Amino acid sequence: MKILGISASLRNRRFAYKNELIEQIKSIQNLNGIKSFVEEQVKITFDEIENLNKDLSFEEKYKQLKKHKGNRGLSNSEASLVYALWQSYRNDVDIDYLSLSNIFENENKNKLNFFKKKFLSSDAILISGPVYFGDRGSLTQRMIEFINSDKQCIRHVKKIFYAGLAVGAKRNGGQETTLIFQMTDFLNMGAKVVGNGHDTTSQYGGTLVAGDIGKVQGDEYGIRTALSTGENLAKSLKDFNQTHNKNKQEDRRSIKKPKICNVFVMQDNEEEECTKVINSFVKNNRNNNVKFNIFKVYKEKVYRCIACDLCPTSYGDKNNYRCIINNKDDFFKLYHQEIINCDSFIFAAYSGENFYNINSNYQQFIERTRYLRRDDYTMGSKLVTSFIVSEVNSNRNLHIRTLTSLIRHKNILSKPLLVFKNNNTYINIDSVKKNFKNFVKDIENIKSQKEENTYVPIGYEISYKGFLNR
Q: Which domains does the chain have, with CATH numbers?
């Protein structure tokens, strides 16, 4: 298994085809060592810039730096990537490196072939790049365009995992929106997506602050998110591939206990179209190793989360329901066991152009999963997707909203299943059936046993005191 680290900044310092960066990363044994290495390499970059003629314009300095060999120093994006790759390697996954500035800044056939060879030999990609107006840079965009234009790359991207790091000039500089847009692109291409891990409260990936050259080294929390992303990507990749290889060797008829997939229909119209469509998909499912439980959440009583100061109310056995809302008719109170004792989730909804005949518990449901997230990610480490029946003009992006909520539970995201309806006709049902079948196959390859993850309530002082005293 190999993770390809991709740095997507025009200011990359390691742009040579052959450089020693990966071997240097692999040789470092501890966190202090990797921090010292990054500091040393950042200083090289800074000194090279300082040694240039001060009368040169920024553009002229940029051209001068491009004349260097490209095998020393680090930009902010590269420094962020180094931390994540080092942590991936420390979790027993091989690593590689690629500079996009060397490929797509002045691309030609040989450069594109070099990129393609690297990409096709990877099992996961980890992209680090700058933020531009809350979105990724043009190098990343061009890479995505190329993957989408090459038949071999299109096939391969469906087999890989993706995670991202974003570097902005300030703490709220668009890093999260950049990661969400990037995440959506790779989901749509068929990749599986993960964010950072439980130790940094499971977000969308690494978010780092660095405006000027070398400033990323001072962002301790950002560095933690990069390390966490590298570790989570490596562990998710290993768990999936080990289970996949094990299933290949076993006679499928000998698997007695099927995997469980819970389908929560959180929003539907009066005709219950979303429920009917997904029921038809489940009915036609030929994979006996996966069993589906469908919950009509939109018909249930779902009390709203009140964001209490200590959530969950106590610590202990996860099988015990421990939300402060204790109404007997509440959905989470009634079905806590069924919710947590499964291997996969589908969050489903009908997305209408208006709400004239819509019954919805969507937002209440999403909010109430708070107690499960804070209970050491009880809903986490599962393969998840969204299933949306959408009128063509609804434009509500429910599939994106759903998946960005699910990644906060430290899950593995899969391609959204989006059925479009136009004039009472489902216009893409066959392609969604194919994607649904692939999702069901992948459920078998996710490790069933629950990982030990710890929720650290950063930002909640009262909750943090309760966390420390448990």
A: 2-246 (3.40.50.360), 253-461 (3.40.50.360)
